[in-house]
Amino acid sequence: MTIKQKDDFSLKQEVELSEKEINSFKKRGYNDDLLPKTKEKRHMSTMNYFTLWMGSVHNIPNYTAVGGFLYLGLSPLGVMSALVISSMAVAALLVLNGKAGSTYGIPFSMHLRATYGDVGAKLPGFLRGVVVAIAWFGLQNYTASLALLILIGKIWPDFLLLGSGFSFFGLSFPGLISFTVFWFINLLIGLGGGKALNKFTAILNPLIYVVFIGIAIWAIRVSGGIMSILNFTPEITQSTSSSKLLTYLIIINAVLAVWAGPGASVSDFTQNAVSTKSQRIGQSASLVVGYTIFAFSSVSILIGGSIYYGVDEWNVLNIVNKWDHFPAMLLSIIVLLMTTISTNATGNIVPAAYQLSALFPKQINYKKGVVIASVISFLMMPWKLMDNSESIFNFLNMIGATLGPVAGVMLAHYFFVLKEKINLDELYMDQTKNNQGNSYKGINKEAYIATITALLISLLGQVNDSFSLISKLSFLIGFVMSFSIYLVLKKKTGHKKGKI
């Protein structure tokens, strides 16, 4: 195994494998998706990472979350600054947790094995690839179906009157049709892998910014200017505490929860980096620049629309629905729909299907995994996650409680236990052998104890209102607790570096 030294203080060594070493891993039963990426296959530069997350920032759940932030007692400028600070926290999570991928070229599944062991990796893989991915898949489908419903209603107004009085667990008949149609489209794309949609990213990202900056300019004009927006106070404000610091932490926690999935599995992206420096600079710039623009546009659009229409509004789709200018409304909705289709397939349904296949290889293949994950996402009735501005908080708190502990253990293990050194020959063990003495064999018990303990504590707020504060800070609490518990347990058990 060849180690190439780099003049990069954050990258002490880059691992470059020969074709002979890669072929030896193949003979052990690993497919191309699991193998370390060689130098020739690492094609993502700083600019590629800069554009990677720019479009993902602008989605309906994110705008809905900002609508909820405006009711927490901070000024509009305070919400904007909290979003920018949050983006820095997200960038740190993705860059640091992505370092194993960019250094060794390994995907998320192998990064998990390096942390939890080959058997132990199944639980956190299930949490990220099944629980969180399916939940997000359902929510994204529902929010996009609302945009589709608006579009159909503008073209065919009587469609909104179909099935008057009908309700499918709180969903109207037109809403059910819209959701089912969009759900089915995503199901078909999932069966095909969704790879073709990646080609639209270069076009979609700039189009997203043209559309949302344009809406922000409209909102500023119709509301009477930027000062009207900055001086706005919602009719109903739910102050969470006399401490503004706590409010900032609640917002930071919510934004981190939005990115908890990519934050945990970021090695799937950074394994393709030409260097750690490229992913560090690219991802940081992408998130901070993207969220700075998003902070200004989202607050301006939601407040500007609220002032103009005389009703406090937390859902950007309700504002778009009131427009009389059909071409502008059509363009905005098409962009939202295409963005959802593009990101939902690759970011949610595909990893969910692969994880189901990995957990039950004899019973479930990829396509069966897509169908099972899609059906589950329908049965969970995601429309109930968007009942009001509080619903999205509950959803994000659940996501944060689920993946915060996983991210905490992953970072603690890589930087403080492994000391950033992974033995790839041992990591890609031959599963037909007993591998006794292999440092990545079995279950990392300390990692499991830390993860499950932090997970249960983080979920307390979901089952008991007395612990509501824990729920509102679920990601931060889960992350810090698992990180700390894990390092304490490792120190007490006296395990050597890299030993599971």
How is this fold's topology laid out?
Layout: E1 2-4, E2 14-16, H1 19-27, H2 46-52, H3 60-69, H4 76-97, H5 99-104, H6 108-116, H7 122-155, H8 173-192, H9 201-223, H10 226-230, H11 244-258, H12 260-264, H13 267-270, H14 276-309, H15 316-321, H16 326-359, H17 366-379, H18 389-417, H19 424-427, H20 445-458, H21 460-463, H22 468-472, H23 474-493
Antiparallel strand pairs: 1-2
Helix pairs in contact: 2-14, 3-18, 4-11, 4-14, 6-18, 7-8, 7-16, 7-17, 7-18, 8-16, 8-17, 9-14, 9-16, 11-18, 16-17, 18-20, 18-23, 20-23
Could you explain how this protein is built, in words?
With 500 residues, the chain is mainly α. The chain is built from 23 helices and 2 strands. The chain has helices at residues 19-27, 46-52, 60-69, 76-97, 99-104, 108-116, 122-155, 173-192, 201-223, 226-230, 244-258, 260-264, 267-270, 276-309, 316-321, 326-359, 366-379, 389-417, 424-427, 445-458, 460-463, 468-472, 474-493; strands at 2-4, 14-16. It has a two-stranded antiparallel sheet with strand order 1-2. Helix 7 (122-155) runs antiparallel to helix 16 (326-359), helix 7 (122-155) packs antiparallel against helix 18 (389-417) and helix 8 crosses helix 16 (326-359).
